[in-house]
Amino acid sequence: MDMIDELAGTIDEKCHVADRPDIPLVPSDDSSRKNAPTSTCLIVLGMAGSGKTTFVENLSKYLTANGAAPYIVNLDPAVRQVPYPVNIDIRDTVKYKAVMKKFGLGPNGGIMTSLNLFTTKFSGVLDLLEKRKFEVKHMIFDTPGQIEVFTWSASGSIITEALADSFPTVIVYVMDVSTSTSPITFMSNMLYACSILYKSKLPFIIALNKIDMVDPTLVMKWISDFEAFDVAVEKEESYAANLSRSLGLILDEFYGAIRTVPVSALTCQGFPKFVEAVEAATLEFNTEYKPEMDKMKADQRESRKLKSEDRFEKLKREVLEISTGPSSSRDDKSRAMDTSVSIGPQGDSNAKHEQRNFDAEESGMEETSFQRFLESAKKAKEIAKKPAA
Amino acid sequence: MRYAQLVMGPAGSGKSTYCATILNHCKDMGRSVYIINLDPAAEYFEYDVIADIRDLISLDDVTEDEELRLGPNGGLIFCLQHLVENLNWLEEKLGRCEDDYFIFDCPGQIELFTHLPVMRTLINQFESWDIRTCGVFLLDAHYMNETTKFFSGALVALSAMITLEIPHINLVTKMDLLNEEDKVAIQRFLDMDTDLLGEMTDEPWMRRHLKLSRAIAALFDDYNYVSFLPFDQTDEESINDILMTIDNSIQYGEDLEHKEIPDERDQEDERGAQGQDDD
């Protein structure tokens, strides 16, 4: 706990929307609040260079200009500057460079560990969001530049699921249309988007960005007209062209399951349609996802809780492993690694056993179960350290 | 002819562990393989490499350069682009020995495989150097233990592979670290009849996306492009299976066999000639 607290401070909120007199708000004593719509969370994902941050910046300006300033959370620990009025910034809680230095990590490890540290404090974020959920229409989450850090990590999953548990949550995948120069790279990008759909299982919007640079007509044609796309792919002399029919079928079904909006993050072209798509996605969430999730929760209360607990434990274990392995001495590191490996199976079963008897709200659960985990980890360490009899 | 594996996958998927395992496994077999590190952000690995991109260009230098103003991600991509502009450096490191077998440990950034031409350029260059390459895409088993996650993994691998146009296999790594329940679940996916895969409707989300899932499952079946092998670094059989599959895909071993026959013939001719001389 000390190590984590040392590197991850508290969650702070800045420049809250309510402090801005120009923004109209729902008054706090409004009795219609009971059935009032809550904010929609937009998790903005995209590859490096897709224009994610510019998109968040100008979407924020656009929404504000239309009377609905969004709440913005920055989840990128390594970004130099954020060009939008951020409300919760991971960089206030976790110092990426300090984390890198402390654990002797490279940039990838630094970003991942910083995000992991932040995620251990995510209940603090949820608390703040809960307070604001009637006050803002949209809560936008800007994610790390390296997309895998979010889409292929425990932290990313935990954050996504924690949000979807409490708010209508929509995935926004920003795609640079100018990189889809060939139907093959276009397919590759779309397949990647589809992988995120399967990962998140949430309403999905593709923001086809940079239409100020490249006319999106051809790409939109590829999306809406399976045959046209097929023709384009077969012209390519590649083995992917052999797969084109099968891949085309996949993509065709994919487009039917999501919404695609051509936009320009720079000029705000396409933003009105984008906001409409968000509204439709929110409706989809409330009418389809929420009832499913509620039913699943009821049906599988115990095993689902265990699964999310397991992931949280693993996340904290990952953070702990890195923190108990100083890079200074090779011996220390290998000793620490050995210790942490032995913590795994033993600590795991101990922690699991305790968890089964532990019945608490999921939001408060994280802190207490982490303490229990630490205790069992400490015990296991002591046992491991004792010389063999 | 020379041979290479291009080891790819998201950060944390176990690329370095895989490289070390194959290296040691081959050593035990009397085979030499040479590892090249192409990840500018690699932190630490326990094996020797014959080339390291960090000798060519340092990520620190790039990210600290005030003119470039690149963040860590941009910096990594810049390093790779620098590499493809200086391929003679790599050529020199690879030498020219016939039958050499290389393993390239690649960075995890998916951009390098989806729309940036970097990896494509590298592979084309390998071809011109008479190196046959197999793509090895690694995914951590912990992220593949549910149907939708498994599909997600398959799609990521596919998105990387279709732009590279080389034979490839996908590995589900860290199988030895899974708990029993997950091990069983993943083995089910790996062994499964793909018709069943598309019909897995235990989750309501899958039910709503049945047609899409079926279309993806059909790909498992028809083309093997999304075939997966389990990787358990403690299991000799697992390692053997993987190595054999890769070797087959790039026809490593076939060329070696052909070579042996002429050698034997040469020896027979020599013996024959000697015999005649003696007479």
Structure report:
The complex is a heterodimer of chains A (389) and B (279). By secondary structure, chain A is of the alpha/beta class. In chain A, 60% of the residues lie in helices and 9% in strands. In chain A, helix 5 (107-120) runs parallel beside helix 8, helix 9 (183-200) crosses helix 12 (239-257) and helix 14 packs antiparallel against helix 15. Chain A folds into two domains: 2-296, P-loop containing nucleotide triphosphate hydrolases (Rossmann fold), CATH 3.40.50.300; 314-385, no CATH class. The radius of gyration of chain A is 23 Å and the shape is globular. The two termini of chain A are 31 Å apart. A seven-stranded parallel β-sheet of chain A has the order 3-2-4-1-5-6-7, sandwiched between helices. Chain B is built from 14 helices and seven strands. Chain B has one domain (2-192, 227-278): Rossmann fold. Chain B has helices at 15-29, 53-56, 59-64, 72-84, 87-94, 111-114, 118-128, 147-164, 180-191, 194-198, 204-208, 210-223, 236-249, 254-278, and strands spanning 2-8, 34-37, 51-52, 101-105, 131-140, 168-173, 228-230. A seven-stranded parallel β-sheet of chain B has the order 3-2-4-1-5-6-7, with helices on both faces. Chain B has 279 residues and is α/β, with parallel strands linked by helices. Chain B starts with a strand and ends with a helix. In chain B, strand 5, helix 8 (147-164) and strand 6 (168-173) form a beta-alpha-beta unit. At the A-B interface, helix 5, helix 7, helix 9, helix 12 and helix 13 of A face helix 4, helix 6, helix 8, helix 11 and helix 12 of B. Chain A: Binds to RNA polymerase II. Chain A: InterPro entries: Gpn, Gpn1/Npa3/XAB1, P-loop_NTPase. Chain A: One of its GO terms (cellular component) is cytoplasm.
